[in-house]
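explain this:
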Amino acid sequence: MTPAIEDRRLPSELNPERASPDAPPSRDLRELTSAEFLALLDRKNIRLQARDEHLTVSAPSGALDDHLRAELKRRKVDLLTWLRALKASSNSPLLPAKSRGRIPMTASQQGMWLIDHFDPGNVAYNIPEAFLFSFSLDIETLQRSVNLLIARHDILRTSFHEDDGELYQAVAAEAHTDVALTDLRSLPEAEAATRCRGLIREHARRPFDLRVPPLVRFHAFRVSPDRDVLFVNIHHIIADHQSLLILREELMACYQAFSAKTTPDLPELTLHFADYALWADQRLRDGTAEDEIEYWRERLAGLPPHLELPISRPYPEQRNTEGAKVTLVIPSELRGALTRIGRECGATSFMTFLAGFAVLLARFSGQYDFCIGSPVTQRTRVETQRMIGLFMNMVAFRIQITPQTSFHDIVRQVRETALEAYDHREVPFQTLVRALRFNRRSPRSPIFQVMLGFEPASVVYPNFWQFDTDPGTARYDLALLLNESANGNVNGYLEYRTDIFEEGDIATLARQFLELLQEMADDPDQPGISRPFVDEVKAVVPESDLPATAPVAPRSTLLGRLSKVFSAHSAKRKQ
């Protein structure tokens, strides 16, 4: 049975993903990220080492209980990957800076500043989130909590500037943002919910002035007597995914403490993002990135200029960030089957889905040599785990496969590609683009035009549910964003540029992706899994039914014109 696509495009009433009734209110070992799990082991003085494909453990007597042993075994592949990255990173200590003054932007921050500079008002790098509470928020207590967090984290008081070609960030002594409240209780509940979603979209599309801190906003919406929505919008230049988790966790800790008239119990911060930025800048000045750049120069030699997807309209001359998304759900049973295939190949869940996405792109484009970009954390040091900031680098995973290859073989090949990329992840993407002389002003993104994002399951709070906010933007031509949920499913969506794709075309692509995952899960040793769709469809559909302009590889064929033959192809497989 082919899994269905979940349609959650701005429903008329608030419909958050509620946690499973059996989900624990606090995080257990399985919910921790690899970085958080390593930090936990470090606190217990448990040391890990990677020796070839073996994981060795040394621990004080009694520190390693049965639960930790089981979790170490379950995470072996992920931990080996992380330890490789840790080994590849610099051993120079990360210490508080003696003097700050003007703080250099990190390379990732420079890239976002340049996008904002050349396209003022761009909101593609806003990160909007909204949460539904099953109680009314006290705005005064919420404001007090926000004030504490802005005072606690330097990055929330940071602004970004240019002076005679020098890009730098500066930390203000103080910064303030008002927590606004919009009361919608005078409206019928369904109308209030619809109005709330419309207002959230409007707020999500409000640009930030990077010169004026704080680059984060909070807004509460009262939709009924016992239902409040908290909207948070933060610019990507000061935050990554883990930053959002830290911000959410500390905001709730402060709110609960202040409500109980106690002092919030938050871990002490001895380092801030500014210290990391200065450390990273010194590493670049020391020339530690030269060997990394040489690796990427060789790795990307001969890469085709672009991945030629079958777009719906001619490619524009100017880059556009207007976008939309089509949601999808990978059921837990299919997710489990793919996870087992990955383990057989020694691959993580990310590597397995990267392989699956690569097969989809190869089948639709007829192209077998291209790059998929993905954000990779730079939180490879324990000291960075509790910092809010942008600890992220975009890494290019070069895909080189042949039409005859099985999914098992593709997963193994992608695993090796990913491990090499992790070993050379430290060179900033913007530095790489400059060094390899890619055209940054081109309407197409340099090196890769498609992206994959994958996030493991995160903590579930009772009476606190997150639901989608869609600002209507797209950073790349096409992106697949996946997120593990507490019930075992993998929720996700295809984000696409609306100036080159039609919604119906991407809906077809999403359905075909789910069918393709099922096909690969059913028979991972099937040869030719990445053959072009048009070649395969010709075997089951009369030639007269094919679009007149369809070549052997559908590089210039509209997805919409192929939807009929895809449907015929799927029906043939189900017989």
